[in-house]
Structures are given as C-alpha cells and as structure tokens.
Fold:
Amino acid sequence: MIVDRLGRRFKNLRVSLTAACNFACSYCVPDGKRLMKAQHELPATDLLKAVTLLQQAAGIDKIRITGGEPLVTPKFDEFLLGVMQLPLNDVSLTTNGQLLPKKHDVIVESGIKRINVSLDTLDNTRFKNICRGGDLDVVLGGIERILDAGIAVKINMVPLRSQNADEIVTMLDYCMERGIELRFIELMRMGHLLNGQGFQQDFLSMESLLDAIGEKYEFARTDAPYDSTAVRFEIPNKGIFGIIANESEPFCRSCTRLRLSSDGDLYGCLSSSRKQSMSDLLDLPTHLALPKLQKMLLGALADKKLAFQGEVTVMKFIGG
Ligand code: SAM
Ligand code: SF4
Structure:
C-alpha cells in the first residue's frame, strides 16, 4: 500500500472516458470553444485494463466515470458494463444529463446504483447561457426516469454570482422534493478561470450559500466520511445537501483521489498538471506492469498538494 506522510493513499479513481463534450459550460470551456476528444484516446478495453491494474497496484475500490461528457462516446456502454463486473465497492457516473434518455437502458441494465447529474439552473434561458448546448427539459426528463428506475441521484450545481445565485434555494427545494442530494460545487480556478477576472466575479463562498439557505431553512452540519470532498448539512425532515468547498474549506489533506485521462495519463492531483502515461504498461504482462505502476503511483501521490491552488489544466482532460 502506498501512503504519504499525511496518511493519504489512493482509493478513488476518476476515469475520463473522453475529453469531448456536447456542452460548453462557461466555467469549464473558454468562450467560443468546444471540447474535442483527445488525440490518442484509449478504447474501452484498454481503459478497463488500466483500471484493473490500478486496483491491484493501489487498492482502488471506488470508480467514478466522468469526462468530458462520458455519455457522448460510443465506448460508454462497454466501459460501464465492464467496470460493473470488477470487484469494486462503488461505481458512479457524472454526466451533464443530456444523453440520459438515450443511455437509460444500458445504465439500468448495468446495475449502477448512483449517478451525479450536473445541473446549474431550472431556467431555460440561463441553462442556454451557462451550458451553451443541450436542452433543459431533456435533462429534467432524464433525471425523472433514472429516479423511477430506483437509481440514486445527486445533483452538482456550480453557484455563479452573475447567473444562478438566486436559485440556491429553488434548486434545493427541487432536489429535496425528489429525494436528491444537492451538491454545491464552489467555483474552481481551473483552465481559463485561473488568471482571468471571471473567477472573482462569479465565485460564491460556502458562507454565502449557507446564508442564502439559512433565510428559509434551519440546518445542521452532519458527519462526512474521512475522504469525502463535501461538507454535508441536514435540513431536518427535508433532506441533506453538501458543499464541495475547495476554497472555503479545502479537503486536500484527506484527498484519496487519482485520475486517469481518456488517453491513459495518470494525475495525482487536480491542482497539478504533471501526468504520467500508463499507455505503455498496458501491453506488458501484469507481473512486469505492476512494479512500474507502483513507481508511477509514488510520483502521483507526491504530486498531491496541501491546499487547492487552481490549475491551468481544464477539467475535461482530467475528469471533474
Ligand atoms: N460532463 C460531465 C458533467 O458536467 O457532469 C462530467 C465532467 S465535468 C468536468 C464534472 C464536474 O465538474 C461538473 O459537475 C462540473 O460542474 C464541474 N466543473 C467543471 N468546471 C468547473 C469549475 N471551474 N469549477 C467548479 N466545478 C467545475
Ligand atoms: Fe462539458 Fe461537463 Fe465541462 Fe460542462 S462541465 S462543458 S458538461 S465537461
């Protein structure tokens, strides 16, 4: 087991199936750009092999399938069905929800138990302004069908001062009525937000979110697991919400995440652009691949920071 001096080890793996996306959210993609797939994206079989090696070398027991937008790539079905066969404690998926209706059957068939859908607004015009793609009603319809199938849903909302700040409570009510846990993600200084004005203009802190919620509800902080990225709160008899407070309450000191990009690169930290390629390991026999991978994992663990510093690498490459 590889552990650092803070007791951090890799347990959770985020796999970006593709860097491509059918949306171009304003906080993820610079104006006028579209996310395209990476030059040498790996097929599902290679990504599954990489996951198996990481399980053996690092003791990974949780996987989140992400992107880019994981539902846009044809390899989604094969990867999902394959990963569900592996001996893991937990498999989850993060999606913008646009293709949930199209992928509904394979998602249900796979046996996956939980999905995170990113949704920042319930207003059509704002949806178009923030996501710059897709259709709000399709996303909402997709969520209802997933809930009807008995799959747990969490919603990720990025609160933005200039866009959806007045929807904090509306979104919370929408979620609590449906038994959905809402997760506010504090805006992160990633990609084009690292050095521009946009971050300062739009950032809303955990404190301001709690102030807005406090105007309508009483809530209390609840215990979150050691390596949870979210600070969680309970509104008695109503539901639970979380805040991923990168800025207000960084969770780096207990982070157990490792990221695998769609082209086979390993990243130890969202706040570091250093990457190591697993591609060459995939053709080796396991007994030769594992020692090389152990060495890479030591390097990836050493990349972890003590506090989130922002990073010019965009989320789509390394999976949000
Ligand atoms: N396309 C999928 C989606 O949007 O759910 C998965 C990938 S996306 C990069 C994963 C998560 O990262 C989304 O919930 C998105 O809102 C979040 N995200 C992207 N850029 C962000 C930023 N600059 N700050 C905070 N969250 C961000
Ligand atoms: Fe696409 Fe997700 Fe980035 Fe939005 S946040 S542009 S849906 S990858």
Notes: The CA atoms of residues 61 and 88 lie 5 Å apart.
